[in-house]
Structure formats: C-alpha cells, structure tokens
C-alpha cells in the first residue's frame, strides 16, 4: 500500500512493509530523504524532520 501527500511543499510517499510491522516515508524530490516508524503518523513526522535536516545540510554545503 502506497499513499502520497504533500508536506512542506514536498510530496511524501508512505508505504507499509510487507509484514505490516512498519511504515516508510520517502520524499522523492530529495534523494535519500527517508524515514521509517511503527505507525504512519510517526513515519510522516520523521519525514518532515528529515526534510528539515536535508535542506539544512544542503544549505550548509552550499547546494541549491
């Protein structure tokens, strides 16, 4: 199961692992920006935190 939503202007793809034990959240526009958690809400929260960290790191490195 994959769901998508937009957060902070970025699309987050949410999927449940095949065993149903955890959820993953990926931000396709930001390579390597992912999060995982036991619930969909926590995975989304993790993805939002990961977006902030990704952007902060890119800016610190002088990347667009």
In short:
The protein has 64 residues and is of the alpha+beta class. The protein is built from 1 helix and 4 strands; from the N terminus they run E-E-E-E-H.
Detail the topology: elements first, then pairings.
Layout: E1 2-7, E2 10-16, E3 23-26, E4 34-37, H1 40-60
Antiparallel strand pairs: 1-2, 2-3, 3-4
Average pLDDT over all residues:
91
Count of individual beta strands: 4
Query: How is the main sheet built?
Result: 4 strands, antiparallel
Span between termini = 32 Å
Beta-strand content bin:
25-35%
Spatial strand arrangement across the major sheet: 1-2-3-4
**Uncertain runs:** none
Helix percent band: 25-40%
C-alpha geometry = elongated
Describe the structure.
The chain has 64 residues and is an alpha+beta fold. 33% of the residues lie in helices and 33% in strands. A four-stranded antiparallel β-sheet has the order 1-2-3-4, with helices on one face.
